[in-house]
Design goal:
- There is one protein chain.
- The protein has 357 residues and is mostly helical.
- The protein contains 16 helices and 7 strands.
- Strands 1-3-2 form a 3-stranded antiparallel beta sheet, with helices on one face. It has a two-stranded antiparallel sheet with strand order 4-5.
- Strand 2 and strand 3 form a beta hairpin.
- The relative contact order is 0.11.
């Protein structure tokens, strides 16, 4: 599919380089630039990513997903969860004003203390909590990933510690809800910086031979340049996927329960169902964590924006958004409905676990 582009005689080289960067084949014919949209995988339209182009699809996702998460948090906090109100706000103020409004500072000191404190705690648990050695599937280069299989123990310690610091008055878990927009904004900054580091690391000082470029700098950043990166002995994906993403998911939904109790002096039945089912699901995950180490997320997906940003930002924000909304919008369910939803949800989680086994 070819397109004519208006005359830009003085900008021929930079325009051609820009299109080449995002994976388009282009050539100048007199004063016109002929652009052929091609898949970087050498396949036709509809393969190789969004729009049949891995580079363009990767770029679009990286440009839209950060603001997407913050938009949903803003909608729940300030627009009563209404997409209609969201549309009116964007239409009235314009997109630039809206982005400025929904994107809080990424340099709030308290938000960073929460993030870094939680990260340091989970990194320490990986090292100090005893667990069996687990050897995952050998890679095509002969590398055997080795993990300290202490996920469920760390999960229990994390939950116990959360209630302990709340009881002792050291930290109020409800503060996570109150600062969630700043936390996600800060995590966006951290994740992008961390993915930049991982991209460079995989190209220049990888941990294993399962590494290298994908042929394009945008795809390298999005998809990653290394399959099993380690930093100072810590496995990156074990930390980002399991001990931060999944663990923060659990901490966040419990924190939302703390906040609702702080507001109304009770936990609504709808909140109880939500927290109970997610707790069962996440507990199941950590009981099965060694199985996850042999899943596609670990064995196939490299450590780039796609998986690391997703676990550092997308999971804490979007996986918990329904419970986040429930904090100030409690729904009273009847006792039979509450019991039915918990039993049906628990059965569904068991089915998922049984399939994984």
């Amino acid at each position: 599919m070819e397109h004519n582009v208006s005359r830009f005689t003085d900008l021929k080289l930079p325009i051609a380089l820009l299109y080449d960067l995002v994976g388009f084949e282009c050539v100048w014919f007199e004063d016109y630039l002929l652009i052929r949209i091609m898949s970087t995988d050498g396949k036709g339209w509809g393969s190789g990513g969004l729009f049949g182009n891995r580079v363009l699809g990767s770029l679009l996702l990286m440009l839209t997903t950060p603001i997407f998460c913050l938009t949903f948090i803003h909608t729940c906090l300030h627009l009563n969860g209404s997409l209609q109100n969201l549309f009116v706000e964007v239409k009235t103020g314009g997109i630039v004003h809206f982005i400025r409004q929904v994107w809080p500072t990424a340099f709030d000191p308290y938000a960073w203390r929460i993030i870094l404190g939680f990260m340091a705690f989970e990194l320490a648990l990986i090292r100090i909590i005893p667990g069996k050695e687990f050897r995952a599937t050998v890679t095509s280069t002969g590398h055997v990933p080795i993990y300290n299989a202490n996920g469920f123990q760390c999960y229990l310690v994390t939950i116990f510690s959360m209630f302990a610091v709340a009881y002792l008055g050291v930290f109020n878990p409800a503060d996570i809800y109150d600062n969630m927009d700043k936390i996600i904004s800060s995590l966006n900054l951290f994740a992008i910086a961390f993915c930049t580091f991982l991209t460079i690391k995989g190209l220049h000082f990888p941990s294993t031979k399962d590494s290298g470029t994908n042929g394009n700098v945008i795809v390298d950043f999005f998809w990653g340049t290394e399959l099993y990166p380690r930093v100072l002995g810590w496995d990156v994906k074990q930390f980002t996927n399991c001990r931060f993403g999944m663990m923060f998911w659990q901490v966040a939904v419990l924190a939302y329960g703390f906040k609702q109790y702080q507001l109304y002096r009770e936990i609504s039945s709808s909140m109880l169902v939500s927290i109970t089912l997610q707790t069962i699901y996440i507990a199941k995950f950590f009981m099965w964590e060694t199985g996850y180490f042999c899943s596609m997320d670990i064995q196939h997906d490299r450590a780039g924006y796609y998986i690391c940003w997703g676990c550092l930002v997308w999971v804490p924000s979007m996986y918990t958004i329904h419970t986040f909304f429930m904090v100030e919008h409690p729904v009273a369910l009847s006792f039979p409905t509450t019991v039915f939803l918990i039993i049906a949800g628990a059965f569904s989680i068991w089915c998922n676990y049984d399939c994984d086994r």
